[in-house]
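For the sake of transparency, this paper describes our internal protein records without simplification. The record that follows is passed on verbatim for readers who wish to inspect the format:
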Amino acid sequence: MLEWGGVADDFTGATDLATNWRARGLRVAVLLGVDHSPADLDGVDGAVIALKSRTAPVTDAVSATRAAARLLRDAGAPRIYDKYCSTFDSTAAGNIGPVLDALATDLGADRTVVVPAFPDAGRTVYQRRLFVFDELLESSHMRHHPLTPMTRSDVTELLTAQSDRSVGWVSWRTVQEGAVAIRAAIDAVPARSHVVVDAVSNADLAAIAAATANDVLVSGGSGLALGLPLRHAAAAPMPVVEGFRAVLAGSASHATQGQVAHARESLPSARLDTAALTSDFTAEIDRLTAWAAAQWADAPRRPVLVYATGAPEDVGDGAHAALIEAAHAELAVAFTARGMRQLLVAGGETSGSVMQRLGVTRLDLGDPVAPGLSWARGRAAAHGGDPLNLLLKSGNFGGSDLFTAAWEHLR
């Protein structure tokens, strides 16, 4: 029976939430987009609908999220988890606030917790301020994000600017008093409010999860999912699909740049040439596909890496973002036609474009390989429904060796 429904504002955010539910013992699937029926959610305890709405126009993001929540509720989900980035990626106008307002209205939620914290990934909230490891959000690499530059750290200020509801706060000191105290503090906030809750550890997340166990709507990064009680029944293992391996890295994040630099020391790699793509898109895709095929012929088990950004000086202003996404999407299809069956994609927007182009509509999650990251299995409608193993990585997640080490989990 479906116990949880999640709506995520990008594809890697969806697998992030699903990974943390899987880590607590739930059977989990990710559905890509809203073109599904409730029957597509049979056989899982938690289902996350992945949208491509993080940087979409506000009205489009709200409409898509409402449709996703309706589908989940129609499938029987008693609770909805509104998943956004743990670094609160959004512009001054949204989309986090307007989406959360709409869900709270539709679900009749008077008070909705806001918990961006994900300590395992270095995201914590203290005194309302969001930290990325030891730095305030506004001082971190997220300040220079090409699409959603984060120049403030106070989550209550960020959300107040976007929301029509009032915004309250529960302090870390109250969180230390436990679930009963947290619940009382939430209930003391005026009705029609969102409530930012401090959290700096997984123990804090467990207390918040207990305090909100009966809430119809919760929101945040994926960390709050780790607060659920651990189940002892192991979920079935994910089938491994044999074939060639590839990494497509579209993210410009600091973490991905480090992963690209590390991988280039041992993997064959090629950087996307935006000038060549602009001049003759098809010819550049064909060139890179032939290059990858030659690498696989030489070393069939060795992944190839195609990346957009390898160093800080490569980061542009986002002008070529759509071109880069389209190139990665076409490469995914072309690589699949050449026998690639194991694919790691870095970047939320890139992952969305790749999954849509491949025609993947559902992912069944395997066990976590790192905080917020799991391999999954999906079918590529663009290539006759062939199965693939897929790891969709948020740009900011993973250790420096992820592009070389992740394959060890496919056994």
